[in-house]
Amino acid sequence: HYFALIVMLVGDSGVGKTCLLVRFKDGAFLAGSFISTVGIDFRNKVMSIDAVKVKLQIWDTAGQERFRSVTHAYYRDANALLLLYDVTNKASFDNIRAWLTEIHEYAQQDVVVMLLGNKVDSTHDRMVKREEGEKLAKEFGVPFMETSSKSGLNVDLAFTAVAKELKHRTMKEPDEPKFQLQQYVDKEMRTAGCCRS
Ligand SMILES: Nc1nc2c(ncn2[C@@H]2O[C@H](COP(=O)(O)OP(=O)(O)OP(=O)(O)O)[C@@H](O)[C@H]2O)c(=O)[nH]1
Fold first, then answer.
1. What is this model's ipTM?
2. Does the entry feature the keyword NADP, yes or no (predicted)?
3. Is 125 helix (H, G, I), strand (E, B) or coil?
4. 159 Cα to the center of ligand 1, angstroms
5. Ligand 1 centroid to residue 7 C-alpha, Å
6. Cβ(37)–Cβ(8) under 8 Å?
7. In angstroms, what is the span from residue 148 Cα to ligand 1's centroid?
8. What pTM did the predictor assign?
9. For residue 195, what is the DSSP state?
10. pLDDT tens digit at each of 197 positions of the chain
């Protein structure tokens, strides 16, 4: 089997969408000056999920307001959305509600959405507590996790988790239990010995 999925990255400008993608794709951090994405950018990565080959096509959207009408057109083709805020930028967190409204309006009804609080390596500049992210995610019924494109923390896990969810939905054996995304990421983080005090 060969399985293709579209994962779209959304969230305010500067939250680290391009860096998350580069970290996942190339295992590197884009240091230096911040170059805002114009419109939309695409990268592919093939990964193996439960012995099934999955081709992820990742769409990196521009967070800037002036590109919104361009990105709206892409929402309906996305199978999964990684919605990012920056834990050092309170405004990017406050805007998550507006992003979720936008997702509701433009994306497919059964799209997999996961909320990511990015830049947790910047411990001294943190403005949004993990608990606040968890609470918001619970309110909207979406899974949540904190990440760092800089250190790489939980980056592969975020992509793997949404890919697993979609693979399970499509190829579930009759007696197989439903895949629980939040439980899966919590367990993986515990196994890695991190991130949940
Ligand atoms: N400390 C830290 N900085 C990060 C992290 N991720 C991104 N950055 C920095 O944040 C800035 C913005 O990162 P981008 O990935 O370009 O942001 P974006 O969300 O793609 O922005 P737009 O393309 O405008 O929507 C850059 O200066 C990055 O170096 C992270 O995990 N930790």
1. 0.99
2. no
3. helix
4. 18
5. 18
6. no
7. 10
8. 0.95
9. S
10. 678 999 999 999 999 999 999 999 999 897 777 888 888 889 999 999 988 999 999 999 999 988 888 889 999 999 999 999 999 999 999 999 999 999 999 999 999 999 999 999 999 999 999 999 999 999 999 999 999 999 999 999 999 999 999 999 888 777 888 899 999 999 999 887 755 44
